[in-house]
Write a structure and sequence with these properties.
globular; three-stranded antiparallel beta sheet; 155 residues; 3 strands; 7 helices; mainly alpha
């Protein structure tokens, strides 16, 4: 049975006494979790943990993200209160992106997970090779190739 998830109405504000449950279908925490854990959201938050970036600096830092995807990602993270966007009234216009205090807390935990994954990648690669060999799906160079394809959005 699916649990309920409290959702504030437009006249309410989210407070500590609301119960959110990411496993409940209608819970708004699912959307935020998706923004954070999606490929570009996680990488963007991780990059912004390093400091403030202009759009193109951030795009270069998050290698492989398109301008459109980075823009959509930043909008979603800004709406969720994780990223602050500051437009400077200069010519040409200058826009800087940085983490909010909530964004810093999320990015800190996300970077711990990223560190764990990077640290344990030899085990992951060994498991992938074993899995492919057991199923006869191993393709020459599949480990390196699939990691590269996955990093570029391939499947």
């Amino acid at each position: 049975m699916e649990s309920d998830c409290a959702t504030p109405t437009s006249t309410e504000t989210a407070s500590d006494d609301l119960a959110f449950n990411v496993f409940a279908r209608a819970c708004p925490s699912r959307g935020t979790l998706e923004h954070i854990t999606g490929k570009w959201g996680g990488l963007t938050l991780g990059a912004l943990k390093e400091g403030s970036f202009r759009f193109n600096e951030l795009r270069r830092r998050v290698d492989g993200v398109s301008e459109k995807m980075l823009s959509q990602t930043l909008h979603a993270l800004e709406r969720d209160g994780l990223v602050h966007r500051e437009a400077q009234p200069t010519n040409p216009p200058r826009v800087d992106y940085e983490l909010t205090p909530l964004g810093h807390a999320v990015a800190e935990r996300l970077l711990a997970l990223i560190g764990l994954v990077e640290e344990r990648m030899p085990e992951v690669l060994t498991a992938q090779v074993r899995y492919d060999e057991e199923r006869g799906t191993a393709v020459r160079g599949a480990t390196a190739g699939s990691a590269g394809a996955a990093g570029r959005g391939g499947r």
